[in-house]
C-alpha cells in the first residue's frame, strides 16, 4: 500500500475514505481535517479560550497536540476520579497528562474528585450500590458537572472533548435503541451555550479511534494504554463491538451512520422543545447553581445528599 | 416453569412479558393480543374485506388462522416468485398455503410472477446482474407492486402482512443506520390509504418470531420450514442476529426498540412531507398506473424495460 500523496510506503489505510497515507502526510492530513471540522461546524476560533477534557489517553492528548499546533488557545482539565485497581489507573493517567502539558508548557488544571467531594467515583458507586453500567453513568455525570463548573469558573468560551467517531457511533446506537428524543436531539458535534451550559465541541467526532491512535503513535506521544477497568463489559463497549463487526463487513458503516444522523438532524428529524432563556435561567440547582432540567437539586448534588 | 393462568406445565416463557403459559392458554392469549393490537392501532374492522400476503411460512399461516378464528373477512394472496433451488421452494410454499386455505374453505388468490411477467425473480435478478441483497430488494419491490395492484383490482379495503417483531426490528435497525427520514417515517403498524396506495396493516408486529412459530406448531398447522435460499447472508438476517444477541443479553430489547420508536413517531420524530391528494394523484406510472414518487415510470416497470 502506497501513500496517495507521495507514493512512499503507507502507514495507514482508511478504507472509508479509500485513502492510504505515509507517516509524514498522515501527520499533515489529520490536523487539516480537524481544522476543516472546526470550521464546518463553527466550533470555536483562535480568539477564544478553550478548556479541553484531558484523560491522559490517546484521543485527548492527540487532540490537544493538534489544537496546540494549529494555534488554538487551549488549557487542559484533568479530573482524577480515584480509579485505582491494580494499575493505579487514575494517578498513572494524570502523570501522562502532566508530562504532555509540561513538555509543551501548556496549562493543565488538576482536580481530584476525592479531595473535592470527599469520595472517589468507586466510593460513590459503592455507597449508592450501583452496578457496573451505573458506575459509568455516575462517572459521566460527575465529569460533566465538574467540566461545566470549571469552564464557568474559569470564564472559558467553550469546552472541548476528544470523543471520536467510535464513541459517537456507540452512543448514537444506544440512543437509537431507546429512541430518546431528548438525547437524539443533542448528538451534534457542537452544542451552543445556553441556560447555564457552556458551549461544547467535539473536533475529533469524525475520526475513527484507530486514526487518533495512529496520530498519537506517529507523534511519539506517551499515553495511558490501559482502558478504564470499569469499562469492561459496559454497554458502550458492547455496542462498539457490534459497530466494529458491521464496519468489517461494510466499510464506512460508522461514518455513514453518524453523518446520515447529522443530516437527519438538519432536516428536522427530532424537533426539540424550545425553552425561553428566562425559563432556563430559573432552572438552577439551589445547591451548586448549575442548570438542571427539573429546577430542583441537580442529579450531581443528589449523589451527595445524606 | 408453570402457566400463570392455570399452573399447568408451561410450553412458552416470554421473558419480555415475564409471562409463561401452557398450550391451551397460549392459544387463547395470542389471538387476544392480536385483537388488542388491531383495535389499538385502528387497523381494520370485521366489516371490511382484507387481503393477506401469504407465503406458506409460519407467520402468514398463523396470522390467517388467527384472523379467521377472530371472524375477520380475509382472503389470501400467494405470489409464486419462481424460487426453486434444490427445494422447489416456491412450489412447495404454495402447496402449504393452498392446503391451509382448502382445509378452512378460504379463498387463496394465486399469482405466478413468471407467468404474469415472463420472468421469475431469479431470472430478473440475473438479467439485471444484481447481487444477493439486490435480489432481496427486487423481490420486495415486485411483491409490494403486485400486492397493491391485486388489492386495488379486487377492491380490498386493506392489505395485511404477517411481519413479526423480529422483522420490524431488523428493518428499523437497518433504517436507523441509514437515517432515511422517508423510511423511518413509515414504520408504523398501520399505514393509511393514500395516493393510490391501499391501507397496510401488520397485526403481528409486536410478536416475536418464536411466538408466531409456537402458535403454528401448537395449532398443528403445516408450513414450509425452510427459509428462502436467497435470505442466507442477507443484510436483514445480519441485523436479526445482532438483535438476537442483544435480546439474549438484555431481554426485551427488540420490543422496547420498536415500541420506543412508535412513541418517538407519535412525539413528532421524522415529520413527513405532506403531499396534497391532487399532487399524489398526478404521480402515477404511465405504464401500470400505480403510484410512484417521481411521476415517471415506476421502479417495478423499469425492471422490465428493454
TrEMBL record, chains A, B:
Residue stretches making up the 2-thiouridine synthetase TtuA-like N-terminal LIM domain: 2-27
Domain of life: Bacteria
Transferase keyword on record: yes
Coiled coil feature spans: none
Keyword Transferase: yes
GO BP terms, alphabetized: tRNA wobble position uridine thiolation
Binding of Zn(2+) 1, residues: 3, 6, 22, 25
UniProt protein name: Uncharacterized protein (TIGR00269 family)
Species the sequence originates in: Pelolinea submarina
Amino acid at each position: 500500500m502506497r501513500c496517495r500523496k507521495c507514493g512512499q510506503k503507507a502507514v495507514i489505510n482508511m478504507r472509508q475514505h479509500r485513502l492510504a497515507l505515509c507517516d509524514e502526510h498522515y501527520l499533515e492530513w489529520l490536523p487539516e481535517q480537524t481544522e476543516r471540522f472546526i470550521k464546518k461546524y463553527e466550533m470555536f476560533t483562535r480568539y477564544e479560550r478553550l478548556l479541553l477534557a484531558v484523560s491522559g489517553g490517546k484521543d485527548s492528548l492527540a487532540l490537544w497536540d493538534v489544537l496546540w499546533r494549529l494555534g488554538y488557545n487551549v488549557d487542559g482539565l484533568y479530573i482524577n476520579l480515584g480509579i485505582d485497581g491494580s494499575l493505579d489507573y487514575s494517578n498513572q493517567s494524570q502523570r501522562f497528562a502532566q508530562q504532555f502539558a509540561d513538555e509543551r508548557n501548556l496549562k493543565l488544571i488538576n482536580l481530584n474528585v476525592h479531595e473535592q467531594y470527599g469520595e472517589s467515583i468507586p466510593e460513590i458507586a459503592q455507597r449508592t450500590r450501583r452496578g457496573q453500567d451505573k458506575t459509568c453513568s455516575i462517572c459521566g455525570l460527575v465529569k460533566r458537572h465538574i467540566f461545566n463548573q470549571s469552564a464557568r469558573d474559569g470564564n472559558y468560551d467553550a469546552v472541548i472533548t476528544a470523543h471520536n467517531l467510535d464513541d459517537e457511533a456507540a452512543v448514537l446506537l444506544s440512543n437509537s435503541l431507546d429512541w430518546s428524543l431528548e438525547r437524539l436531539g443533542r448528538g451534534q458535534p457542537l452544542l451552543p451555550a445556553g441556560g447555564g451550559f457552556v458551549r461544547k465541541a467535539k473536533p475529533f467526532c469524525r475520526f475513527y479511534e484507530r486514526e487518533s491512535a495512529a496520530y498519537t503513535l506517529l507523534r511519539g506521544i506517551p499515553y495511558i494504554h490501559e482502558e478504564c477497568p470499569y469499562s469492561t463489559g459496559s454497554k458502550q463497549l458492547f455496542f462498539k463491538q457490534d459497530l466494529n463487526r458491521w464496519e468489517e463487513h461494510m466499510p464506512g458503516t460508522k461514518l455513514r451512520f453518524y453523518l446520515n444522523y447529522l443530516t437527519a438532524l438538519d432536516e428536522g428529524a427530532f424537533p426539540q422543545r424550545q425553552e425561553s432563556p428566562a425559563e432556563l435561567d430559573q432552572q438552577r440547582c439551589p445547591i451548586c447553581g448549575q442548570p438542571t432540567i427539573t429546577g430542583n437539586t441537580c442529579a450531581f448534588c443528589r449523589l451527595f445528599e445524606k
